[in-house]
Design a protein that fits this description.
The chain is of the alpha+beta class and 291 residues long. It contains seven helices and eight strands; from the N terminus they run H-H-H-H-E-H-E-E-E-E-E-E-H-H-E. The chain is 51% helix and 16% strand. It has a five-stranded antiparallel beta sheet.
Length: 291
Amino acid sequence: MSDKQQNLPPLPEEDAVSNESNDWIAPALSAEPPPEEEAQEYKRTYSIGVFFVCLLFGFLFAMQFKSVDITSENAVNNQLLRTQELQNMLNEERQKNDALYQELLTLKDDIARYRELSLQSGDYAAVLNNELRRAELVAGFTDVIGPGVTVTMSDSVASVAGDGLTVDPSYLIIHDNDILQVVNELRDAGAEAISINGERLLATSEIRCAGSIVSVNNNRYAAPFVIRAIGDPEALESALKMRGGVIEQLAFFQIEVDVQKSDEVLIRAYTGTTSYTYAQEYKDDVPANPS
């Protein structure tokens, strides 16, 4: 062996390199599993979290149930108040009707007494009696009978959801304007007397909406509406059924209008009262208002 070879440092042995590398890997491979205490702590923390989540959902559910219960109770209370209010209104209307009926009986007694006195006073009184009877007939204070038509108007049986209609649902029920159109057509065709659900129409009668019902002579009615008119049956029917007329217009919204001609249509007298607070008889000897 030469001197140069003797002076070289010794080469590392393979076992030494292998042992050095194993010194870095051994700790990772020899890591022990977490202790039992840490596993128990993890389970305990998880259980507490689940408990609080369940508690939160239970609280929210209880609040929702309480809110629904309060809403239901308020709805019932509102319904009871509304029922009581309607009952009070009904009682007031009954009292008004009783008072009007008593006044009507008094007026009828007065008219009968005047008629009896007029008949006992001679021919002139008989003429006045005839004029009185005619005035009562024109004013609507007597029952009348004659040929005419009976018109029955009913709300539409269609539904927006079921029949695929694209109109406002309020168009499917009868309004005061629909009744006014029928009444105006009958009057234009020569109707001499008209009633709606037994209410005799006068010059002062009103037909107007009152919520989902219609007021006639300050009395409220719901559909169906029965309109009776005395006049020429053919002319009255033709006026309602003309092309583009009121029946054809209402048929677009499937509102049912049935017209029946008859030789005898009975229309009762007006049972309300009439009073004039501002209108007074004008006399020639009283100077007119310059304005």
